[in-house]
Specification:
By secondary structure, the chain is mainly beta. The protein contains two helices and eleven strands.
Amino acid sequence: MKKANVFLVMVCLFGVWFTSCVKDNETLKTKVKKIDETSKAEILKKLKTNSYEGSYLMESRVGHDKSVCGGACRSANGIPYHVDCEGGGTACLLRASINISKLIPDDLYDIYYKGIGINTYEPTEDSTYYLPSRSLYIEDEAFENGYIYLNIPDQLLEREEESGQFIYKDITFSESPLFENL
């Protein structure tokens, strides 16, 4: 009987020792893709190998119902008004294609990019568009983690005089989203 107890104790000790030596899955380095299904972008064309410059198709949910802001989320000449599918919220699907280039070409320390719309009707045919802050998930194995985020701060998009396309300012790229997409 004593030999059986000693044997069981030895098996238990070996089991404890063995399980303590196995690495936890959290310590292993793996490529984990953080998919945000509500706001994403697709690379249509890259201009340079080691750069974010290129053409992108963006897709995000934006805008809110008039009742959320009481019809007074924007103002012109002191008169409040509401525009459907603009500003914060998730009521409408926004799709827009843009060309992105460095704000200051060949400056390695400059992290800012600018975007110029490709299609005059995206995201609207109006002369301005209030775009809320958005971080758009881009899946691409060329990036170290297999993904990157395209970040656009909230801004009133205005059209470029020459082309008539919307101008997107202060675009950045990061490994994690900078905005909550609310």
